[in-house]
Amino acid sequence: MLLVATALAFAYTEQLKLTPSPIVGTQVTKVFSPVCECDTDAAVIAFRLREVDRLDVEIIDRGGAVVRHLIERLVYRRGPVQFVWNGRDDANATVPEGSYRPRVRLVRQRRTIVLPNPIRVDTTPPRVRLLGVAPRVFSPDGDGRADRVVVRYHVDEPAQVSLFVNGRQRVRKRGLKRVGTIDWYGQVEGAPLPRGVYRLSIGAVDVAGNPAARRPGRAVVIRSVAIGRDRIETRPGALFAVLVSSDAASVDWRLWARTGTAKPGTLRLRAPLQPGRFTLTVTAVGQSARAAVIVRRPAP
After folding, report:
1. Is 42 helix (H, G, I), strand (E, B) or coil?
2. Residue-level pLDDT at 5
3. Residue 29, pLDDT score
């Protein structure tokens, strides 16, 4: 009798192997985060039914225990069907991180199929570190000298990395590299930003949709030219020196009626002959810096 039962079971199993699967075209979300409050906060389970049937669809854990009943004894027609799992169990609690699988019971055909597509629940955000920013002073003026800042980063898992400038996302890195660089050219939507101090920070979002916590960034300065002093006091006709900082090959200067061109560095000029308040203007690649020149006669 035992031999007969064994033979019948074997024959039934072999028949199932030869019978086309009642489910085809399976597509299941590979990884998601039910806590990210983003577009990937749920898993989609989709397939096609060869025949009309009454379905039970469940989510099971690695040990085969049911954690969530998605639908029970509902009739679906032949064709595409789709279900959504929000990462919660039957008690509406978020399930622990780990791997889960959809299980489909076809009541009329008396078949149970565990889909081979695992769903990974990931609720741990990535950790990103800003490794370096260079140079800290640059001039996005298109002259080929110090036109960009290079930001180096490291993420502890594959993630999409973004650069934030003063708290707003400005550059999104393609790919999911854990170590890399992002170039920033001091522009927003193609327009160069004015000179000033800007704070750069790094953000990251892993493949499940979890965002990394952003830490305080590092400050960079945009400028094409700068004068070492805002106010210069001197005597009529006296020589004075002031430091001019620029990555340009040369700068143009104007003081009262006189003009000239010089290399960046120490600029030596002669003060106007008459007392008064004058403006020293130094220009490089279309941007200018100014300093007040106060000319006073020496006290008698």
Report:
1. coil
2. 43
3. 97
Per-residue pLDDT tens for 218-266?
999 998 888 999 999 999 999 999 999 887 889 999 999 999 999 999 9
Counted residue by residue, the chain has a size of 300
Instruction: Name residue, tokens 């039957």.
Output: 90
Within 10 A of 162 (CB to CB), how many other CB atoms are there?
21
Count of C-beta atoms within a 10 Å radius of residue 188? 10
- In angstroms, the CA 179 to CA 186 distance is 22
Superfamily (CATH H level) for 225-295:
Immunoglobulins (2.60.40.10)
- CATH code for 128-222? 2.60.40.10
Is 220:133 a contact under the CB 8 Å cutoff?
A: yes
Helix count (H) and strand count (E) of the chain?
1, 27
Cα 6 from Cα 56, distance rounded (Å): 29
Give the model's pLDDT for residue 211: 97
Are the beta carbons of 100 and 29 closer than 8 angstroms? no
C-alpha 161/C-alpha 153 separation (Å) is 9
- Where does the pLDDT of residue 178 fall: very low under 50, low under 70, confident under 90, or very high at 90 and above? very high
Per the DSSP assignment, residues forming a β-bridge with 45 are 28, 83
CATH fit for domain 19-121, picks 2.40.30.170, 2.60.40.4070, 3.10.20.440, 3.40.50.300: 2.60.40.4070
Q: What is the mean pLDDT of the chain?
A: 91
Query: Domain locations in the chain?
Result: 19-121, 128-222, 225-295
With CA atoms as reference, report the closest residue to 86 among 72, 105, 100: 100
The H-or-E segment that residue 182 falls in is strand 179-184
- Report the run of H or E that residue 10 belongs to, with start and end: helix 2-18
Mean pLDDT of 94-117: 96
Q: What is the pTM (predicted TM-score) of this model?
A: 0.75
